[in-house]
Amino acid sequence: MKILVVEDNERVARFVVKGLGEAGHSVDHAANGRDGMLMATSAPYEVIVMDRMLPGNIDGLAIIEALRKAGNHTPILILSALADVDERIKGLRAGGDDYLTKPFAFGELLARVDVLGRRSSGASAERILQVGDLRMDLLSRRVTRGARAIVLRPREFKLLEYLMRHANQVVTRTMLLEAVWEYNFDPQTNVVDVHISKLRQKLEADSEPPLVRTVRSAGYMMCEHA
Amino acid sequence: MHRLLRSSAATWAIGYVLLGLAALVAFAIPLWLAWSVTIRDGRTELLRGDAQRLTDVFRREGIDGLTAFINARVGMQIAGERILLLTDASHRRLAGNLSAWPRGIPDKSGTDAVVVELDEQPAGAVVVHTALPGGYNLLVGRDLARFLPLERRFSYGLVAAVTFLALFGVAGGILIRRELLSKVHGIRQTVSAIMQGDLRHRLPVRRSGDELDTLSQTINGMLDHIEHLIRGISGVSNSIAHDLRTPLAELRSRLEDLALTRPPAAETFAEIDAAVADVDRVIRIFDALLRLAEIDTGTRRAGFIPVDAAAVAAEVVEFYEPAAEQKGVAFSFHTAGESPVAGDPVLLAQAVSNLIDNSLKFVTATGAISVHVARRPDGAVEISVADNGPGISDADRPNATDRFFRGDASRGTPGVGLGLSIVDAVAKLHGGALQLLDNRPGLRAQMVLPAIPLLGSPAVSGAALGSAAQGDRVGSGWHFRKVPQSRRPSGHGA
Question: Touching check for A176 and chain B: CB below 8 Å?
C-alpha cells in the first residue's frame, strides 16, 4: 500500500515510517503541513497518516479540510495528543476517517492503517461474508461452518461480522471495543479476550481448524489458516 | 474634581440636585405669578370699593361733606395705610394726606401706578383715580412698600430652599459616593488579594441584603467553586507526582540496569517488553486522570441526552458476562423496565463497567455479583453493583473514592486506584452520588442519579432535583438512543 505520513516529530516519524515499511508498505514522509499538502495532492496514496499539530501553525485538520474540499477522498488516520471526546469529534468532522491518540502502540497504528486502506479498495455491500468454510449471511443472519449451523447472540454476531469483514487484517482490542460495543474506554479486565475465546469455542465446536489467530502485542486476525 | 465627576455616584447626585432645583423653580414661578396677580387684583378691588364709598358720600353730602369725611378719615388713620386726596378741577388739594397731586395721572378715571411724596419720602403707590362731577378729583391709593417685605420673604424662602436642596444634595451625593467607594474598595482589595493567589479571602457580606450584598454573595459562591477546583487540581498534581513517579522510577531502574549489566539478548528483550508494559501503565494512569479531569470540568454535560440507564447497564452486563462466567462467578442482572436519566451514555457505561470490573477483581471463584437498576418513587434512578467479596472496611470507606486510594484488599491486584474516582465523578456529573454500602458481606456500590432534569438547565444540584416533581416528564416523548451519531469514536466497520 502507498502511505503518506505527515508528522513533524522526527523520532515518531522514523518509527512509523520504518514500521510501516517493514509491514510491506511503501511510505513517504512529509515533515510539515505544506509538504504534506503538496505530496497528498500530487501523488495517489491509499492512506494518509496525519499528525494534528504541525509546525508553522498549520493544524492538520485544516489540511484535511482542504484536501476534502479539493475532492481528495483518501482515507486519513489522524494522530493526536488531544484525547478528549470533543477533539475526536472535531477530527472526524473535519474529514478524518479514524483517530488515534498519542502515545500509541505501533500494532494499533498498523492495524488501523490496514483497515483504512482495505476500506478504500473493498466493497462493503456484500450479502455473504466468507472465510474458509465459515459463511455469514448478512440478510438472514445465518452463520454456518461447513454444513454446521452456528447459533450466535447478537453481539457475538456483530463481533464475528467485524472480524470477517477484516479477514487477513489485524484488529486490535481497542478497535473491537469501539466498533462492536461502541465503548471508548479500556476495561481493566481482559473482557475482549474472553469474548474472542467464547467465539472461538463456537466456531471450533467440532474441533475444526482455528480461524481466529492471536497476534502478539497487537490483537486478533481472522484468516483461513490461522 | 475631575476624579469626582468620574464617579458614578457623584454624577448621579449632581444630576438629582439639578433635577430638584428645576422642579423647585418650576413650582415657584407659577406660584409667584398667581400670588402676585391675586394680591394685585384684590388690592385694586379694595381701593375701588373705597373710592365707590367716598363717591357715595360725595353724592349724598356734596363736596363739603366729602371733605369733612376725608379729613375725619385722615385724622383717624395710621400713617401710610391709605393714600387719600381730594382736589378741585385744577388739582388743588381740598383734603387728604397727600400734599400735592402726583404727576403722571391721566385726567380720566382709572387705576395707575405712580410715585407719591409720602412723609416727605418718595414711595411707589397704586392709586384709583375717580373724576367726580364738578371737576373734583378723588385719589384713593395704597403704598406699595407695604407689600415689599412679603415679596422679600418669598424670595428669601425660595433662595433658602434652593440652598438647602443644593447643600444636602451635594453632601448626600458625597456621602453616598464615599459609602459606595468604600464598599467597592473593599471588593477591589479582596479581589486583588485573590488575584495574587490567596484564595481564602471572601468579600464582606453585611446582613442588609442590598444589591452589593447580593453581588458579594454571588462572587463568594464563585470563589468557593474556584477554590474547590484549584484544590482539586493541586490535589491531582500531588497525586500525579506521587503515583506516576513510582512506575517511572521502576522503568528508569529497569532501563538503567539493562544498560549497565548488558544481559544476553533473550533477557534483554524480556526486559524491554516489561519496560513497554511499565510505560503502558503510566499511559493508563494518565488517560484515567485526563478522563477524570474532563468529567470534573462538567463540559460533558453539554452532550447530555435522554438515556435509558437500564439499557446501558444491560449492555455492560452482557459485555462482562463471559468474563464472569470464565471466573465461575454467579452474575445476575435485575431491572424494572425503562429507567430514564439525562446523561452521557458512554460515561454511564464506563461507570457501570468500572463497578463490575472492581467486583470481578475482588470476588473469589465462588462469588456472586448482582447488578440492579431500579426507579425510585421520586423518579431517581438507582444503579447498584453488589458482590460478596471482601468489601471495603469502615475505616477505608470515606476515602475509597479518593484518587489513587487503594484499600488493603486491593494490594497485589491490577489497577491504578482511579476506578471508583471515575464512578464518583460520573455520578456527580449527572447530579447524583455514589454510595458505598456494606453488603454483609461484600460491597454494594450504588449510583443514585436524579430523574431527567430540564435539558438546558446548566448545573443542577441533586437537592434541587429531588424536590422538584419531574416524574411526569419521564417517558413521554423521550427518544432513547445508545450512542449519538456524533459521539461515535470512530467509523470503521460497516
Answer: no
